[in-house]
Amino acid sequence: MQRDTPIFDLLAKELQRQRSGIELIASENFTSLQVMQAMGSVPTNKYAEGYPGKRYYAGCEVVDEMENLAIDRLKQIFNVEYANVQPHSGAQANAAVHLAILNPGDKILGLDLSMGGHLTHGSNVNYSGKLYEAHFYGVQKENGLVDYEMLEQKAREIKPKLIIVGASAYSRDWDYARVRKVADEVGCLLMADIAHPAGLIAKGLLSDPFDHCHIVTSTTHKTLRGPRGGIIMMRKDFENPWGHKDNKGNTKMMSHLLDMAVFPGIQGGPLMHVIAAKAVAFGEILSDDYTQYAHQVQKNAQALAAAFVAREYNIISGGTENHLMLIDLRNKNISGKKAEQALVKAEITANKNMVPFDDKSAFVTSGIRFGTAAITTRGMKETDMQFIADVVDRVLMNSEDTATIEAVKKEVNAFMEQFPLYPEL
Ligand SMILES: Cc1ncc(COP(=O)(O)O)c(C=O)c1O
């Protein structure tokens, strides 16, 4: 077969882009070479609908072992009784939980998208806002912290069937125990979406959601540094509260409902090559190297936030406890959109983001979000954060000045040579 030169040329170009630039997108990371090798491997050819030992296809003995290994390692990482590693993405993991728990029209309560929440937590452009009656809590205007009083008030008022905690652009830890109290009071379930800070939670650097939240979902490709994908976990399985019974009249456990929701509920055949890569990444997370990495991600985020504060940038909530920060650019007279566009010209990638109580649209935005998961994988330490804040600041303060941006880009490219990416490739 003829080599597909146009695509392989583009792959080489993308590798070069990743190598030479500074990656500050909070939801991105660089997997290890062995994670990528597992991803680009033979199980991509295999159909395996079902679960290990209970497949709808023949020849699944080997992929069963892979999936079991992924499940066992994930259970070990978070000390959980139940894990499903099949969701194709974070959004699929959340959709499966919703399908397992909710009926169309049921009420859910999540963090508003414009305050840092995620589309799948009830946004009206997402299935979660179309199929269910979505209600929202927010953050406090004065300090950018989650407004737990508002959450409690809304929960008591609307009596949702599910409360969702977790966010895409929130730099602080969560008080899971407090939310569980009100969930118990109104008789609903509590789900945490830890897509962003999962790696820090895995190493005990943030509060543990598992004792308080009935169900926990995550992506695998952000701080967890695995392949793109989703996972669903429970520390303890429990009888589903709505009394669904199986054929023998036994009440089904939540694990059964969740498994059924992933397949056949919302997905067909699992991506077994990605599950193999998840297993590799989970093995890495269990290592001491990853423990050091997670600590460094958090230290770098704190150093980067301090470097921006020193340059009079306004960080929502005043700082960070995890791997990311959201900056309100209004005192710098530049929109998130313009900032993103100027930075990309200097080969610094970051994404525009609405800030709480934003007066600009989601397309323009007043904010920008930075994260340290990817640059820490490149090998950067706290002292390097000064350089990062300096180049970002120079671009944002000279966003129309092509000569300055060109000069910064050269500095960025030279700086990144110190941090080789995939030297084997
Ligand atoms: C909190 C949260 N949940 C879910 C997702 C969805 O993940 P995916 O893009 O893999 O569907 C994201 C992705 O940004 C996220 O930030």
Query: Order of helices and strands, N to C?
Result: HEHEEHEHEHEHEHEHEEHHHEEHEEEHHH
How many strand elements? 15
Please work out how many helical segments DSSP would assign.
15
Q: Can you identify the CATH class of the largest domain? A: Alpha Beta
Helix content: 40-55%
Topology, pairings included?
Layout: H1 5-20, E1 22-23, H2 33-39, E2 50-51, E3 54-55, H3 61-78, E4 82-84, H4 90-101, E5 107-111, H5 127-131, E6 133-137, H6 148-158, E7 162-165, H7 176-186, E8 189-193, H8 198-202, E9 215-219, E10 230-234, H9 254-266, H10 272-285, H11 288-310, E11 314-315, E12 324-328, H12 336-345, E13 348-349, E14 351-353, E15 367-371, H13 373-377, H14 384-397, H15 402-416
Parallel strand pairs: 1-13, 5-6, 5-7, 7-8, 8-9
Antiparallel strand pairs: 2-3, 4-10, 9-10, 11-12, 12-15, 14-15
Helix pairs in contact: 2-10, 3-10, 4-9, 6-7, 11-14
The protein binds pyridoxal-5'-phosphate.
Structural overview:
The protein is α/β, with parallel strands linked by helices and 425 residues long. Helix content is 42%, strand content 13%. It has 15 helices and 15 strands. A 7-stranded mixed sheet has the order 4-10-9-8-7-5-6, sandwiched between helices. Strands 11-12-15-14 form a 4-stranded antiparallel sheet. The two termini are 23 Å apart. The mean pLDDT is 97. The structure holds pyridoxal-5'-phosphate. Pyridoxal-5'-phosphate binds next to helix 4.
